[in-house]
Fold this sequence. Notes:
The structure is a homodimer.
Chain A: E1 27-29, E2 53-61, E3 70-82, E4 86-87, E5 92-98, E6 101-105, E7 108-112, E8 117-120, E9 126-129, E10 136-143, E11 150-151
Amino acid sequence: MNEHVKQSNLCCDFVNRAKGKKDNKTRLYRYAGNFSWKGVKPERYKPAGKDWSDIARQTLIGNRGETSKFHLRYFEIAPEGYSSFEMHKHEHVVIGIRGKGICIAGKKEYRISFLDTLYIKPNEPHQLKNTFKEPFGFFCLVNARRDRPKTLKGR
Amino acid sequence: MNEHVKQSNLCCDFVNRAKGKKDNKTRLYRYAGNFSWKGVKPERYKPAGKDWSDIARQTLIGNRGETSKFHLRYFEIAPEGYSSFEMHKHEHVVIGIRGKGICIAGKKEYRISFLDTLYIKPNEPHQLKNTFKEPFGFFCLVNARRDRPKTLKGR
């Protein structure tokens, strides 16, 4: 993971949603290597929280005035990092891009590797974590309008 | 491209939308190599049309009862293949996955390679094509509820 994006925010965040209308233009985000995109700034929010650690976020589609009903983000979890254990009404789609990681969803545990695609249904308690030695990067698709996650205990 | 999925439907299709409620379950679509996923059937629709050619589709998220406001599909265009030149009110997000291809959108032409991400705004005339020697594979994200494309002339 790039140092400058080392810690930003958790996967199921509710922060930094589109703030009013910006330009809704056709635009290419050219892949610049090392899991970064030209025109997409790494997002930094806060140091490691109590219930999550070592997650970086890049919003590819969602905060530049796009009118699509969905947002596309790329997250990266450093080794030993993890997202909050939480639930919400909105669905998630996770697509493995870099390395591998684990997603706990409901009573199951899924290993996510390159292009593995996980649909997480509404109100399914879930958590993503990296128990491996390389960064775990994935796309996470969500509805543009979505409810705030509830953090759960017990993990 | 696998022979059995060689021709199915165009990118901006309106066919085979979710047909009533099925089960809305958390589910992993394990990547099975060769740009195929376990549990995802290649879709075949019709032989080459007048305005499109050599496109295969796999619907990862969208026709198994998922309630997300978006659908995720993987398309592959064989060398010399192309989608309809068309427009519609709904947005597209295209993410390059396999090989490379060209997307004409508005007055511009974009080369799409691995992880390049293109947002196409509403009502932007567009066409995807493969002018290269290897298959061109990409994810295409769309709103679950979307309008029917209008086919355009002139390309």
